[in-house]
Amino acid sequence: MQPLIDHARGFAGAVAGRRDEFARLGDGQKPEALFISCSDSRVMPALITGAQPGQLFELRNAGNIVPPHRSDASCAVAGTVEFAVRALGVSDIVVCGHSHCGAVQGLLNQSGLSVMPQVRRWLTQAGHGTGHSEVDLDAAVMRHVRTQLDHVRTHPCVVEGVAAGTLRLHAWFYRVTTGEVLANEPGTPNFLPL
Ligand SMILES: [Zn+2]
């Protein structure tokens, strides 16, 4: 932890040369996209996309799970999606899964979740669970990402944005060992190089 603290301690000094750019961030934010990804430490949206401060509105949780819309739910994910679309007016939503994802692994094999009841309960929001015979974790993640994007589509603000042509949706797969990014070909299960 100490190297992280040291870096944070020196951060303001390190960006002193970008003072005007940082000062303008105080005027508000107009991010280009909502980027939904896993909390996994190996996935760094700004590193992958080259995003600068103010460009990406991020939503991260274990397994990049987006529960389907429920009007009576008090849901951090639903609230964040709604804020991004209605208040910030993002034009794009990306759901980005990744290789070696422990959450998707947990969905495939729940035997390791006995000491993590909260994780087990959270994973039930994914909309699919055990019963899939996939031994290829990458394929499971890709299927999982497409399911979460389907869930994104159930949120009323997204329904309206897509219908109006002001909102585009993307399902991505990031390979942590190579940096490759694949994108789902809409209407198919295929993931192709971005
Ligand atoms: Zn993950």
Automatic annotation (TrEMBL):
Any one Pfam family match given in the protein's UniProt record, by short name: Pro_CA
The entry's keywords: Lyase, Metal-binding, Zinc
GO molecular function term, any single one: zinc ion binding
Cofactor note text: Binds 1 zinc ion per subunit.
Binding-site residues, Zn(2+): 38, 40, 98, 101
The keyword Lyase is assigned to this record: yes
GO BP: any one term: carbon utilization
Reaction(s) catalysed by this chain's protein: hydrogencarbonate + H(+) = CO2 + H2O
Top-level enzyme category: lyase
SUPFAM superfamilies documented for this protein: beta-carbonic anhydrase, cab (SSF53056)
Reported cofactor(s): Zn(2+)
InterPro entries referenced in this protein's UniProt entry, alphabetically: Carbonic_anhydrase, Carbonic_anhydrase_CS, Carbonic_anhydrase_sf
EC number of the protein: 4.2.1.1
Entries under Gene3D superfamilies matching the protein: Carbonic anhydrase
Role of this protein: Reversible hydration of carbon dioxide.
Family as reported in the entry's similarity comment: Belongs to the beta-class carbonic anhydrase family.
PANTHER family given in the database record: CARBONIC ANHYDRASE
Name the UniProt record assigns to this protein: Carbonic anhydrase
